[in-house]
Sequence to fold (72 residues):
Amino acid sequence: MAMTFMVLTVVIALIAICFQPRQREVAALPVPSRDVKELIRAGRRIAAIRSYRRRTGVTLDEASRVIGHHAA
Fold:
């Protein structure tokens, strides 16, 4: 019984690892709009991330990386 549970746990973990979404490169993501770039220039990074996510539908991690890239 314990061995079956352990094997099942390992199988579920492997399946979860296989189906994790792949991170897209910053260059493959949409370019921020003029409004988002203005927020970045004004130092309003969180507002820029929110606006970028709302407009593009990307994940929080992707939006954060794009805004960080354009802020540098």
User: Anything to note?
Assistant: The CA atoms of residues 7 and 13 lie 10 Å apart. The helical segments are 2-18, 34-41, 45-56, 60-71. The chain has a mean pLDDT of 90. The radius of gyration is 19 Å.
